[in-house]
Amino acid sequence: MKKSVVNVLVFGALVAVGFSCSNAEMEGRLARLEGRVAELEAGKARSGPASSAATASPTIQQTALEEEVPSGPAPVFTWAEENYDFGTITEGEIAEHVFKFTNTGEAPLIISNASASCGCTVPVWPKEPIPVGGTGEIQVKFNSSNKPGVQNKTVSITANTNPKLSRLNIKAVVSPKAGAADGPVKK
């Protein structure tokens, strides 16, 4: 039941955004909402109206959840890089980048979810636990169709780490396709 309510909320947010990824403010809101949904699906969020986390602002909620420290040994992401700039690409290109990481913690690392701030960005992550000292990759594909201009996208990674949420960022300047009209065609 809880998951279906969360899915309805996410769908409502997507409808409100209008499936548009060009507005940076809306993308930020959607990224925060996706992060919150991932936390709820992971069962780490407090529920009920009496909970102080339920009535706090999203920033306070996220901070409270990130500060929950698990007992015992924990895995740790050590990223080769957390930001990647594709530079200038042509509209319609699908740009790909692989973010590499090592588990430098003291327990196996399990990624439970990876979600992007926009449907134009798709992450692929390892579903198997990464052992201590092991390495992994998260592949990110960005579809630049109908996305001219500067694009900044975020991939939120939910794992059994502390903090539970990690973020990867990609950037691109998308040049309009050659021959694309800038406005109405004059005859």
How would you explain this protein's 3D organization?
- With 187 residues, the protein is of the alpha+beta class.
- It has one domain: Immunoglobulins (Immunoglobulin-like), CATH 2.60.40.
- The chain has helices at 2-17, 24-41, 52-55, 58-67; strands at residues 77-79, 83-90, 94-103, 111-116, 121-124, 135-143, 149-159, 165-175.
Sheet with the most strands, sense and barrel status? 4 strands, antiparallel
Number of strands: 8
The CATH first-level class comes to Mainly Beta
What fraction of the residues are assigned to beta strands by DSSP?
Answer: 25-35%
Keywords: Signal
Organism: Imperialibacter roseus
InterPro entries: DUF1573 (IPR011467), Ig-like_fold (IPR013783)
Protein name: DUF1573 domain-containing protein
